[in-house]
Predict the structure.
Amino acid sequence: MQAPTINATTGFQVGGSYGASGQCLISTGSGSSWGACSGGASSPLTTKGDLFGFGSANARIPVGTDGQCLVADSTNAVGMKWGSCGTGTAGGALDSAVVHNTGTETVGGDKTFTANVTVQGAMLVAGSWQVESTGPTTPMTGGAGDSKVGFDSDGKLKVSENGAAVTEVAKVSSSITGNAATATSFASAPTKCSAGQAAAGVDASGNAQGCFTPSGGTSSPLTTKGDLWVYGTADSRMAVGGNRSCLVANSSNGYGMVWAFCGTGSSTTKTANYTLTAADDKLLFIFTGSNLTATLPAAIPSGSAVSAWSVTLENTSATPLTVSPNVLTLDGSAASLTLNQYQSATIYTDGANYFSQRGMGVPPGVDVNASGQVTVTHLASALPVAQGGTGFTDTTYQGNTHKVATASGTFASGNLRASDANGNEVDAGVAPTASNVPFIPFNGYNTASTPNTPFSTSANVGGLYGFIIPYTITTSKFAYRVNTADPGSANYGVGIYNSSGTLLLSYSVPATTFAASTGIKSGTWTVNSGTTTLAPGKYYVMFTSGCTASCANFTVSGSTAATFYSNSAFSIAAGGSLPATISAPTGYLESFGAQVLSMVFEP
């Protein structure tokens, strides 16, 4: 080999031969010579950023996109690949806001993200998947039109569907096989009854059970304003009561209830003069002030559709109460009515003037104290002498120590009683004589042209009304007036019962006898118990009929009768048949407007 030279154009140059094309200068240990090249390989690199790699042979590794890192990956052909840089920790990314390549991404190993991860498409997870979160510090809110699922600030898994309110996801802690079966069953169309049928019920899956064809419903018995559909032993019609009357439960009534006076719930206390109005119909007024005047309306009030106008006035003051008829008459006189302490009166009208039904008052000087004792105060020397004393002084006597009068001697059964010179009660020595004058148990009447009936057309019903006989009477018959005849054969019955419920007198005959024609009729009593002589006391009269349509009508009390017991639907075994005994009412069903058959008891 020649000594090397330096050429200004080609650079360092070895002297001697250059060798053949493609040969390499090879060291011989003691020198060098040109020879065949061995152990080398051609470069596969072609583009900026390429790396020379090796898998099973030399290979080119193209450069990744900006921001990617070369990551070792044993699953890759060359043992590495360009990918996300992560957080810089082992197996993690380095950037919290990495934008991945489009297309499918396979992420292996644990990855930690410090901020939100946005997935533009579906995220598919192979294998088990678990989310662990401490929850946000602020409550979860609904998405802006989107659906949202996540753990809320209370640690519970919640969901917001299509921007709706956030709700907790339901959880189960046991097998849901039964629940799923039930849900599937409910999702199925239930079994239905055929057209025109009704179901007796439904099962747990909503299927109709016990299908049947219903029969026709009961026709309504209602015919008039205010009617009630009631039931006793069958569906029935119950007519409305008078204004301000109340529907009161009553188990002895055929319907289990009656229209009755509302009692103290309709009372009003007055401490000054008062002029009554049409709106005061059926009210009780209690006057407590001194020397007051109650003035009746100058124009007769019309009352209600079923009863005439009436009021009840009571005076509890120690001074008189004056009841002025105004410009009309009261009991046929233009004079005022005076009510002393504890006296009362019911004022009613016949449509032209006023009339009164008066109660009993307490004599001056007599009172009842808070303990229920009767007290008597001296007012005049003419008062009786107390037993064992010389007369009253200006002192109040009460209790059993001081008595106005005492019973003296023995008394024969049935005899009247009298008073001796000292005010003691003694046997009069004579029996009471029955009155031979007619007796009218109920006041008031309607006009003959107005048909009315106290006989109910309902099955197994009788009208029962209370009245008082103040003195002994003898009656063998009674008079009444028929306004509309009944050509049928149904039975009509009128019976008088004592306070114990025993039938004393009765008149029970077919319509052909009771109401064959219009006009005044007379019915002869049949004695069922006792005699035709009735002692003073409390009695009941019953009206009953077997007629249910085209029945007779009669003159009645004109809805003005006052009674301590009014029951137009008293339950009995059969209409038109008077029971021998009844369960005597234990209470009161007061009425100030009962429609009772106008009757005259005759000797």
About this structure: The longest strand covers residues 461-469. The longest helix spans residues 177-187.
